[in-house]
Amino acid sequence: MAYLQQAPAWFLWLASLGALYVAAFLPRLLVYLTHCLRRPEDLRLRYGTWAVVTGPTSGIGRSVALELARRGLNLVLVDLDAANLHEVSGTIMSRHAVQTMAVVFDLSLVSTPKGDEALRRLRDAVKKLDVGILVNNAGIAKPGAVFLHEADVEAWVRMIRVNLWAVTEVTAAVLPGMLRRGRGAIVNMGSASSEGINSFPLHTMYSATKRYVRDMKHASNLYLQLQHALCS
């Protein structure tokens, strides 16, 4: 106690601030650890036998697709490149006893005639399937760290279509079936630019689209997080 009385005011202020941060963060950490330490859930039983993953051919999307297949879920894979879809489908089926369905869909063409046709194919593909999980993973950051006038307007429009409009359209295509069956999970891949950074210079457009993705859960009647189910 004597030491605290002798400590400078700035030290006490910083210590108090740190204590408040730890107090706010600790419950989230405990919940996360609880989810990760408990027994893995049967995703097929809880959500459904099929999952839709956008952008599954590389990076996070590929890892998520492989993990869902390992858990026994059949996959509807959505990407713009048919060859890449064929490759990842072959990889998944060679490792796991699941079915895959490929839908070629350039998400940057959403709300265009070509995009409407691809969206119709996706709707037809999922209509009769027990789709219980949707992973909105596809996203682009191009044209990158530039001022608005330094990039072609169409490049910004493509970013908005992929990161914002496509997330909305694909969710709207899958969500009605989840609501009808009374179960499901929608996982939207966000970005630290919309979570831990109040301002993201030269990436304002990108961070704004990712902020929309983060807040999209408030627009859906059904939003269930999958993080706890994948922690095993």
From TrEMBL:
A GO cellular component annotation in the UniProt record: endoplasmic reticulum
List the InterPro entries. Answer: NAD(P)-bd_dom_sf, SDR_fam, VLCFA-Steroid_DH
List the SUPFAM superfamilies hit by this protein, alphabetically: NAD(P)-binding Rossmann-fold domains
Q: Name one GO molecular function term.
A: ketoreductase activity
Short name of one Pfam family? adh_short
Report TM segments.
12-34
Keywords for the protein's UniProt record, in alphabetical order: Membrane, Oxidoreductase, Transmembrane, Transmembrane helix
The domain of life for this entry's organism is: Eukaryota
Protein name as annotated: Estradiol 17-beta-dehydrogenase 12
